[in-house]
Amino acid sequence: MQVTLPPELELIVSRQLTSGKYQSAIEVIRTAIELLEQQEDIYQGKLAELQQAAQVGWEASQRGEVVDGSIAMEQIRSNLNSRYTK
Q1: 63 lies in some domain
Q2: Rounded to two decimals, what is the model's pTM?
Q3: Distance (Å, whole) CA 25 – CA 14
Protein backbone atom coordinates (compact mmCIF):
# COMPACT_ATOMS: atom_id res chain seq x y z
CA MET A 1 0.00 0.00 0.00
CA GLN A 2 1.28 3.42 -0.87
CA VAL A 3 0.03 6.48 0.96
CA THR A 4 0.51 10.10 0.00
CA LEU A 5 0.46 12.43 2.96
CA PRO A 6 -0.85 15.97 2.72
CA PRO A 7 1.82 18.64 3.30
CA GLU A 8 0.78 19.34 6.90
CA LEU A 9 1.24 15.67 7.84
CA GLU A 10 4.55 15.47 5.97
CA LEU A 11 5.70 18.43 8.07
CA ILE A 12 4.78 16.61 11.29
CA VAL A 13 6.65 13.49 10.18
CA SER A 14 9.67 15.60 9.20
CA ARG A 15 9.69 17.34 12.58
CA GLN A 16 9.66 13.98 14.35
CA LEU A 17 12.55 12.74 12.23
CA THR A 18 14.51 15.94 12.86
CA SER A 19 13.98 15.53 16.61
CA GLY A 20 15.96 12.31 16.44
CA LYS A 21 13.28 10.27 18.19
CA TYR A 22 12.63 8.21 15.08
CA GLN A 23 14.86 6.79 12.38
CA SER A 24 12.33 6.63 9.52
CA ALA A 25 8.97 7.94 8.39
CA ILE A 26 7.58 4.42 8.69
CA GLU A 27 8.58 4.35 12.36
CA VAL A 28 6.78 7.66 12.98
CA ILE A 29 3.63 6.43 11.23
CA ARG A 30 3.75 3.04 12.98
CA THR A 31 3.96 4.79 16.36
CA ALA A 32 1.06 7.07 15.44
CA ILE A 33 -1.07 4.09 14.45
CA GLU A 34 -0.19 2.24 17.67
CA LEU A 35 -1.24 5.31 19.69
CA LEU A 36 -4.49 5.46 17.73
CA GLU A 37 -5.15 1.82 18.60
CA GLN A 38 -4.46 2.51 22.29
CA GLN A 39 -6.77 5.52 22.22
CA GLU A 40 -9.53 3.42 20.65
CA ASP A 41 -9.10 0.76 23.34
CA ILE A 42 -9.34 3.42 26.06
CA TYR A 43 -12.38 4.99 24.40
CA GLN A 44 -14.16 1.65 24.15
CA GLY A 45 -13.43 0.93 27.83
CA LYS A 46 -14.70 4.35 28.89
CA LEU A 47 -17.78 4.00 26.71
CA ALA A 48 -18.63 0.67 28.35
CA GLU A 49 -18.18 2.23 31.81
CA LEU A 50 -20.43 5.16 30.91
CA GLN A 51 -23.07 2.86 29.47
CA GLN A 52 -23.03 0.80 32.66
CA ALA A 53 -23.29 3.92 34.84
CA ALA A 54 -26.18 5.20 32.72
CA GLN A 55 -27.95 1.86 33.13
CA VAL A 56 -27.51 1.98 36.91
CA GLY A 57 -28.90 5.53 36.95
CA TRP A 58 -31.84 4.59 34.76
CA GLU A 59 -32.71 1.62 36.97
CA ALA A 60 -32.49 3.79 40.09
CA SER A 61 -34.79 6.38 38.52
CA GLN A 62 -37.29 3.66 37.64
CA ARG A 63 -37.37 2.71 41.33
CA GLY A 64 -37.97 6.35 42.25
CA GLU A 65 -34.51 6.76 43.73
CA VAL A 66 -33.87 10.24 42.36
CA VAL A 67 -32.41 13.40 43.82
CA ASP A 68 -33.28 16.97 42.86
CA GLY A 69 -30.64 18.45 40.55
CA SER A 70 -29.63 21.30 42.86
CA ILE A 71 -29.23 18.89 45.77
CA ALA A 72 -27.17 16.52 43.63
CA MET A 73 -24.88 19.37 42.52
CA GLU A 74 -24.37 20.45 46.13
CA GLN A 75 -23.44 16.87 47.07
CA ILE A 76 -20.98 16.71 44.18
CA ARG A 77 -19.39 20.04 45.17
CA SER A 78 -19.15 18.90 48.78
CA ASN A 79 -17.50 15.62 47.76
CA LEU A 80 -15.02 17.45 45.53
CA ASN A 81 -14.18 19.99 48.23
CA SER A 82 -13.56 17.29 50.81
CA ARG A 83 -11.43 15.32 48.34
CA TYR A 84 -9.17 18.25 47.43
CA THR A 85 -8.92 20.01 50.79
CA LYS A 86 -7.38 17.11 52.68
Answers
A1: yes
A2: 0.55
A3: 8
